[in-house]
Amino acid sequence: MSEQPAPAPVPDAVPSAVRASAPSAASDAASAPAAAGEAGVLPAEVADALKRDGAGLVAAIVQQFDTNEVLMLGWMDDEALRRTMTTGRVTFYSRSRREYWRKGDTSGHVQWVKSVALDCDGDALLVQVDQVGAACHTGTRTCFDGRGLSVVSGEASVSGSAS
Question: Could you tell me the pTM of the whole model?
């Protein structure tokens, strides 16, 4: 189940400001999340907008680009986000294994990046992808298949307020 660390991006595909201090794939496979102030991990305007948790991570919601189907939630630090933005493949930071993993390297269930957006608070990412195969490690299309909870359903009134 362990994914392999993503290779370093092709130099021409990475802006020079990011390339200058990007760690090599060999040295970062089991490293801790990148420090928030580490220079060159992300463009400054992106790094400054992120609100990370105590471990330096941001939640990344993964959504199928053409159907808007929510596929999964993963975690990214600055380096995982940089890799996702510059390689065309989604990379996460595994909290349990303390390493980077590129979705699909061992399973073949690749996530091809279509877009990445930051939410209004800077504490979550929306990564739109073209998913190949199952997104969930259990083999289901999404991590939410068959996992619905019983709720009282609300309904908007004609005036737009909750009823």
Answer: 0.71
